[in-house]
Specification:
The chain has helices at about 20-30, 50-65, 85-90, 120-130, 150-165, 180-185, 205-210, 225-235, 255, 270-280, 290-300; strands at about 5-10, 10-15, 35-40, 70-75, 95-100, 135, 170-175, 190-195, 245, 310-315, 325, 330-335, 345. By secondary structure, it is of the alpha/beta class. The chain is globular. The structure holds N-carbamoyl-L-aspartate (NCD) and zinc ion.
């Protein structure tokens, strides 16, 4: 029996598009399915000022194939030198929809990130005043903290104190990966949201490490134990408006993934919506896919819900997705869930 659902056209609330040849190669993968995406600013050099965000937005729109509709929602990369007035102006013009906090050294291209939160308090106070969300990469970077504990320690030692100090600040916990993240987001009220990736609903840390190391499953925050994956599935399928889709699709060329010091990031833009339909069906929650992928994000970001629709169809036969996207920067491996997927997005 074939099955189908139609949902409001989704958005991706956490996406890496890169620049140049990589941008050109990966943008259609997102624009084909998603109306809008929050665009991560961790370019080299990072997107720090309003002017840089405007120029990046223009490069994204220039790379968009004719006939595709897509709205990039720009972000600024928070540094200890960020000017509150520049942030406020970029938000007031409608260009910038969030500011991204990377603790220095936490992930790909994060060395310009924040070492001392006190130094950015004037920016955060201005953001609280104007209602501009702070997107957080929620991991501490102190070498003493085990990589699997970095999210839980960030919540206790950075995020909770910051939110007690500045309760009006609107915060998105990006790509949560733990029970602790799920629980903290559940109790945060209307000023707190959390994005969940597709791959963290599918893999746990065994998938990375058992039977040979799988570099294409390595991302940050790193996938955790099975009980955390189960907590993420319950959260994503709960219908709770605190949780929404942010794929964190993060392309790196194969040569840099399959490497002695491999880059972090899973590239999921191509098959995310089919994989989510599979996951939500497994959880008997297909009726909640729309909240997670299309409704909760705009509500948090105070943006209108998309007017278009997306039809997802479950076929008798497993669907074939490309194994790689061939960009002018090099091939990029598409996330392989490791199971057959019968769902596809239909025009
Ligand atoms: C991201 C990247 O490659 O830019 N990598 C990742 O593993 N998610 C950075 C990030 O979001 O942490
Ligand atoms: Zn990311």
């Amino acid at each position: 029996m074939s099955k189908e659902i139609t949902i409001t056209r989704p958005d991706d609330w956490h996406l890496h598009l890169r620049d140049g040849a990589m941008l050109q190669g990966v943008l259609p993968e997102t624009a084909r399915h998603f109306a809008r995406a929050i665009i991560m600013p961790n370019l080299v050099p990072p997107v720090v000022t309003g002017d840089q965000a405007a120029a990046y937005r223009d490069r994204i729109l220039a790379a968009l194939p004719k006939g595709m509709a897509f709205e990039p929602l720009m972000t600024l990369y928070l540094t200890e030198g960020t000017d509150p007035a520049d942030v406020a102006a970029a938000a007031a013009s409608g260009l910038v929809k969030a500011v991204k906090l990377y603790p220095a050294g936490a992930t790909t291209n994060s060395h310009s990130g924040v070492r001392d939160l006190d130094k950015v308090m004037p920016v955060l106070e201005k953001m609280a005043e104007i209602g501009l969300p702070l997107c957080t990469h929620g991991e501490v970077t102190t070498p003493e903290v085990d990589i699997f504990d970095r999210e839980a320690v960030f919540i206790d030692t950075v995020l909770a104190p910051l939110r007690r100090r500045l309760p009006e600040l609107r915060v998105v916990m990006e790509h949560i990966t733990t029970e602790e993240g799920v629980a903290y987001a559940a109790e945060g009220g209307p000023n707190l949201g959390a994005t969940i990736t597709t791959h963290h609903l599918i893999i746990n840390r065994n998938h990375i490490l058992v039977g040979g190391i799988k570099p294409h499953y390595y991302c940050l925050p790193v996938a955790k134990r099975e009980r955390h994956r189960q907590a993420l599935r319950r959260a994503a399928t709960s219908g709770n408006p605190a949780y929404f889709l942010g794929t964190d699709s993060a392309p790196h060329v194969d040569a840099l993934k399959e490497h002695a010091c491999g880059c972090a990031g899973c590239f999921t833009a191509t098959n995310t919506m089919a994989l989510l339909a599979h996951v939500f069906e497994e959880e008997n929650a297909l009726d909640r896919l729309e909240s997670f992928a299309s409704l909760n994000g705009p509500t948090f970001y105070r943006l209108p819900v998309n007017s278009g629709q997306m039809r997802l169809v479950k076929h008798e036969q497993p669907q074939v997705f490309p194994a790689k996207i061939f960009t002018e920067a090099g091939p990029v491996t598409v996330f392989d869930p490791g199971f057959a997927v019968q769902w596809s997005v239909e025009a």
